[in-house]
Amino acid sequence: MAADNYEMASAILATMPVKQSLGAQINNTEASGVKSLDDFEKLPLEKQLAFKAAQPEAYAKLFA
User: What is the pLDDT of residues 16-37, one digit of tens each?
Assistant: First the structure.
C-alpha cells in the first residue's frame, strides 16, 4: 500500500510545472533587452520571432 502511494505521488509530482523565481515571472523582457516596441523593432527578424515564441505575454504587452 505504501508503494502504491509513493508511485501515485511520484506521478503527480512529475506533471507539476518547474518552479520559477518571481522576478523571472514579473518582467523577463529586460534579460532580452526588449523594454519597448522600438527595442523590439530594432531586433533582426530571427530574434523577433524567438522573442515572440519564448515570451508570448511580454510580446502581447508590446502591442497593447
Answer: 776 766 655 555 555 567 888 9
What grid cell was written down for 18? 518547474
- DSSP code of residue 17: P
Cell 533587452: give the residue: 33
Distance CA 41, CA 27 (A): 19
Buried b (16+ CB within 10 A) or exposed e, 46-56: eeeeebeeebe
Q: Is the pTM of this model over 0.70?
A: no
Please, are residues 11 and 41 in contact by the beta-carbon 8 Å criterion? no
CA distance 25 to 31: 12
d(CA 22, CA 6): 30
Residue showing cell 516596441: 37
